[in-house]
Amino acid sequence: MKKYKLWLLFIVLISPILAYGKSSVWVAEKDDKKIILAGSVHLIHPSQLPLPTEYLKAFNASKRVVFEIDLAEMSSLVSAAKMMQTFQLQGTTLDKTLRPAVWRDLQQMMQKHNIPTTLVMFDAAFMSFSLPVVIWQQQGYQEGIDKILYD
Asked: Which of 31, 55, 125, 132 has its CA at a distance of 20 to 30 angstroms from the CA of residue 44?
């Protein structure tokens, strides 16, 4: 039993090393059928372009491409309005829902990155995903792999 556990531990530790590659494109095959899976990031820095050739090869070899989300709908004004409405606070503001120390830290971050304080009308969940995106965009990150391939 001890030998079995050691082998299992070895396999768990070595698997990530064996799986490492230069891109996040994999091919799964069974019975002469293939599916190509490509990992994606939603923001990418121009210095990371062009995409590895595996992405374009996989894209060009595909009969059908399926994305995680409907990018056309996500970029529509209707979807944006629905999302904003979902995360908008009702009858309060963010400064009233956070602990004072957290609110001070958030204000400092927003000031440092010139982010308008009018965003206090949205909840903490909205801030937790939108603030990093705004900051990354300020650092030059642009729409990611999924959007590049979609376009």
From this structure: 125
Q: Of 116, 143, 132, 126, which is closest to residue 43 (Cα–Cα)?
A: 143
pTM: 0.68
pLDDT tens, position by position, 13-28: 554 444 445 668 888 8
Q: Are 24 and 39 in contact (CB under 8 A)?
A: yes
Q: How far apart are CA 102 and CA 123, in angstroms?
A: 13
Amino acid present at 144: G
**DSSP codes joined into one string, 20-60:** --SSSEEEEEETTEEEEEE---SEE-GGGPSPPHHHHHHHH
